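Summary of Year 1 activities. Much of the first year was spent building the evaluation harness for sequence design. The harness presents a backbone, in tokenized form, and records the residue chosen at every position. We chose the following record to illustrate the format because it has been used consistently in internal testing since the harness was completed.
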């Protein structure tokens, strides 16, 4: 594990905060033996915060929690295109970022981050219903309306509530590795990996049963990554032509079938590097990547580091 000190997470609840958006980071990162995180839920001031959907939140901490946190989550809130966040909140977010904290928005929480100016010139996303409003209010933000989440390093944004889970698992994967992220996904009964580039919603032209069939094929693939997997094999399992499968797979996920398979193989390789002492050559064979040279090539292309360096990062001090 790269860092034995608990990661400090602040969940900043603003007026009109959406219940799911608040609950996701609070639950994913809640303190437990297998998760070295400490969570504080805070508001502009301690006390009662009126939320959305008929709920309210009693928060124990004010903006002082942002001076303590390593990661600050900003859940979505109602009427983001009408109500600007308080100036004290904006200043506290900027100060936290300047101090080195990561800022992560779920859904319309992106509007609060945009108000700080920290998204100017950067890619960002929000719930598809509000992407146009975000573009209009903050024209310097490079809004991407067709992704689940965007990681710009120190600032991260996600689409609707469900993609907040994907963002949290993505952060876990970076902090603690694939094994810890997959463990959390199983606990949440969530998909272990949906890339940030995956489309926010399936186009209406794709029949629902076909969408379910493609999901079943992706699940089938995850249990057979060490086997030969071609476009024809995947299309045959889904019961459609390779051309139809490829086109609709891209519509549903935002990447080609073989790009998705490659990323899944690299993620499996990451987990094996973290949890076993198998050689790079053995892991390449186990994950369907063939040779150690091929594993190193794709590992570095996707993650920007080599498998040996990655293993050292996640075994140092273990």
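For this record, the design step produced the sequence shown next.
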């Amino acid at each position: 594990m790269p860092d034995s000190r608990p990661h400090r997470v602040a969940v900043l609840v603003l007026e009109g905060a959406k219940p799911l958006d608040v609950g996701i980071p609070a639950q994913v990162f809640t303190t437990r033996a297998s998760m070295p995180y400490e969570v504080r839920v805070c508001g502009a001031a301690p006390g009662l915060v009126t939320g959305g959907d008929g709920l309210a939140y009693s928060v124990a901490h004010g903006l002082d929690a942002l001076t303590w946190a390593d990661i600050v989550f900003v859940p979505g809130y109602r009427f983001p295109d009408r109500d600007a966040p308080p100036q004290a909140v904006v200043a506290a977010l900027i100060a936290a970022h300047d101090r080195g904290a990561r800022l992560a928005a779920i859904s319309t929480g992106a509007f609060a981050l945009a108000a700080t100016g920290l998204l100017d010139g950067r890619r960002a996303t929000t719930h598809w219903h509000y992407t146009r409003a975000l573009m209009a209010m903050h024209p310097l933000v490079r809004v991407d309306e067709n992704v689940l989440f965007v990681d710009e390093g120190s600032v991260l944004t996600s689409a609707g509530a469900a993609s907040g889970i994907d963002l949290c698992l993505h952060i876990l994967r970076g902090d603690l590795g694939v094994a810890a992220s997959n463990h959390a996904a199983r606990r949440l009964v969530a998909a272990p990996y949906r890339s940030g580039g995956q489309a926010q919603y399936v186009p209406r032209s794709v029949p629902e049963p076909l969408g379910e069939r493609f999901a079943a094929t992706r699940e089938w693939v995850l249990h057979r990554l060490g086997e030969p997997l071609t476009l024809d094999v995947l299309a045959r399992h889904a019961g459609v032509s390779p051309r139809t499968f490829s086109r609709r797979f891209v519509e549903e996920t935002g990447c080609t079938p073989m790009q998705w398979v490659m990323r899944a193989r690299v993620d499996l390789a990451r987990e094996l590097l973290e949890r076993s002492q198998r050689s790079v050559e053995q892991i390449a064979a186990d994950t369907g990547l063939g040779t150690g040279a091929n594993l190193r090539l794709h590992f570095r292309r996707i993650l920007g580091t080599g498998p040996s360096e990655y293993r050292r990062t996640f075994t140092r001090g273990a």
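The first strand starts at residue 7 and ends at 12. Quantitative recovery figures across the full test set are reported in Table 2.
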